[in-house]
Amino acid sequence: MKARRGIYAAAVSPFDAAGRLNTAALISYCQHLLTEGGCDGVAPTGTTGEGTSISMADRLALPAAFAQAGIATDRVIFGTGAPAAGDCLALTQAACEAGFTNVLVLPPYYYKSPSDAGVFAYYAHLINGIGRDDLRVYLYHFPQMSAVPLSVDLVLRLKTEFGPIIAGLKDSSGDFAQSAAFMDATGGVEHDFDVFPSSEAMLWDGLAKGSAGIISGSTNAFGALAQAALQAPEGDARDAAMARVKAARSAAGKYPLMAAMKQAEAWRSNDDAWTRMAPPLVPLTDAQKTALRADLDAFRA
After folding, report:
1. Active-site residue flag, 29
2. Judging by beta carbons within 10 Å of its beta carbon (0-12, 13-18, 19+), is residue 160 exposed, middle or buried?
């Protein structure tokens, strides 16, 4: 089943004292995000979830644990990208075998400036290797991190070749014009291609253009605000809700996002283990924590 549309959190990942993924804590956290956290879906093991810093063993075991916990398969898009095509295939296979056929896939991000033909070959290898008609791949455009942008022409070629298997795209460029270009070229939701910008500040601009919602790192803390804006009736109520969303997103942008979202969860859950980061990332400084606390308190007032 294709992932539902709406507000997604790019879920942060908890680590134990040995630096391994705390799977039970992640599942509990995602259940929170899907209820009182205000989110329609979660995207674990992506960039905000430090997915590339999690061991293959832990990533491979995660989808089965989500299935055992009873989390609905249409509310999860697992990040399965990897520089090695074989690792991406194995991670995607593990997700599919657990019933989670919606996956978010970075292009191969070690070799820089690959040709469109080379990136096409990577995705084709994945899709042909999985060999399932129910696979749904969400392309992941994040050139600031991957240094491998996805061109509009490549997206169209993949969509033409593989049809509904190429289900959509997460655009983490931060440039709404880029998101709009993907929507214009593919037809967006009207043609069943689900583009998700990466900022809740773009929520209603994106929906008006043909997006499927948003997948954001800051909705770890502000998912309920984004959901309120999504549900608000057009007019003054929506404008006020979006002003609050944009202010929250701007506040989150003052800090290293992953560390800030983990600190927010540490406070919510009263569990400082959430502040652990996978090297080379580090927790917030004391000064940053003090400032973040003040910002979060302001949005809860």
Report:
1. no
2. exposed
pLDDT means per 10 residues, the chain with 301 residues, are 96 97 98 98 98 97 98 98 97 98 97 96 98 98 96 98 98 97 97 97 97 98 97 97 97 97 98 97 98 92 55
Clarify whether 48 is annotated catalytic: no
Residue tagged active-site, from 109, 140, 159, 255: 140
One-letter amino acid for residue 47 of the chain:
T
Q: Where are the domains of the chain?
A: 6-233
d(CA 12, CA 262): 7
State how far the Cα of 97 lies from the Cα of 107, in Å rounded to an integer: 22
* List 101, 122, 170, 262, catalytic entry: 170
List 78's β-bridge partners, or say none. 103
For residues 26 and 50, what is the distance between their CA atoms, to the nearest angstrom? 12
Contact assessment for residue 125 and residue 89, using Cβ atoms and an 8 Å cutoff: yes
Would you state the pLDDT for residue 301?
55
Q: Alpha-carbon torsion 59, 60, 66, 68, what sign?
A: negative
Whether 140 is a known active-site residue: answer yes
- CA atoms of 162 and 55, how far apart (whole Å): 30
Pick the CATH number of 6-233 from 1.20.1250.20, 3.20.20.100, 3.40.50.2000, 3.20.20.70: 3.20.20.70
| Active site (annotated) includes residue 209 | no
pLDDT at residue 1 in the model: 83
Spot the catalytic one: 110, 111, 254, 285: 110
Using DSSP bridges, classify how beta strands 213-216 and 194-197 pair: parallel, antiparallel or unpaired.
unpaired
| C-alpha distance across the termini of the chain, in Å | 39
- The total of other beta-carbon atoms located within 10 Å of residue 228's CB is 19
